[in-house]
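Re: that backbone. Tokens:
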């Protein structure tokens, strides 16, 4: 079926952005965490202040910090202790993870199931993206994690505010249509456009915002090429970890390997290692 004209896609995106313009989809504390990361000379102190101002949010971060995944030598009872044992970057990632979780909660069973699936994929992608960033040294592990965590943000925003029903898009995807094409047909725009648009509205850093453009290979000179490649490959590995391989073929973006300096002929080993990282992470909600 023919794609929508560019003007119609732009209008659909603008309409959806208008709906979320004044909505605090992400908790204020998450914006503060991002601000502290970029501007503060004393990030640990400022991070503690930013998180502890919201008791409920602090409780969620502490619960996750005390999960089996981190294996801390003692139970931590404050954000300050979490920072001491886990370090600034790990606590920042925990705060981002907790803050993003509420975006993926549905109002009914069908929505909840769909969004839980997206959420699980987002967390798995974040874990894998952080591992890829550390392995390649091409970008900040912190930023790679956040890109992986938020790259499906547009899906839940479409589901919540789009002029359409994501169930209809799911049927098209199940029939073999690419997700972004199905979304454009039902909503007039796709989840990548929506995620990038939301990130711009919320004044996220450029590297993080552009890192959400993970579906298509970036051209030479375009910003955040490594972040985009990392997000794309991490998302593919997370999908394979959940769904397995089809016909023993690896459906991975080969362009991402090139940008990250990885050998395509080592794809199977890299995917297996990434799946291992995902499996060893016990972050759950």
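Recovered sequence:
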């Amino acid at each position: 079926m023919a794609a929508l004209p560019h003007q119609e896609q732009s209008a659909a995106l603008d309409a959806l952005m208008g709906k979320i313009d004044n909505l605090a989809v992400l908790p204020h504390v998450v914006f503060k965490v991002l601000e502290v990361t970029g501007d503060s000379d004393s990030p640990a102190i400022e991070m503690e202040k930013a998180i502890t101002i919201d008791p409920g949010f602090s409780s969620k971060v502490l619960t996750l910090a005390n999960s089996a995944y981190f294996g801390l030598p003692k139970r931590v009872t404050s954000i300050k202790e979490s920072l001491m044992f886990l370090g600034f970057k790990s606590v920042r990632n925990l705060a981002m993870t907790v803050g993003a979780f509420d975006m993926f909660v549905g109002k009914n069973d069908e929505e909840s199931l769909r969004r839980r699936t997206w959420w699980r994929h987002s967390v798995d992608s974040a874990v894998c993206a952080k591992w890829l960033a550390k392995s390649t040294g091409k970008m900040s592990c912190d930023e790679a994690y956040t890109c992986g965590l938020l790259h499906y943000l547009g899906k839940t925003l479409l589901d919540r505010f789009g002029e359409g029903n994501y169930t209809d898009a799911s049927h098209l995807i199940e029939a073999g249509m690419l997700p972004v094409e199905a979304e454009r047909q039902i909503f007039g725009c796709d989840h990548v456009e929506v995620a990038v648009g939301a990130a711009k509205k919320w004044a996220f850093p450029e590297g993080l915002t552009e890192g959400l453009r993970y579906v298509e290979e970036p051209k030479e000179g375009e910003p955040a090429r490594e972040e985009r490649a990392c997000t794309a490959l991490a998302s593919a590995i997370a999908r394979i970890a959940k769904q397995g391989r089809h016909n023993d073929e690896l459906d991975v973006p080969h362009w991402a390997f090139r940008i990250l300096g990885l050998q395509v002929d080592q794809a199977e080993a890299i995917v297996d290692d990434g799946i291992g990282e995902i499996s060893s992470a016990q972050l759950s909600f």
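Residues 109-136 form the longest helix (28 residues). The chain has one domain: 6-280.
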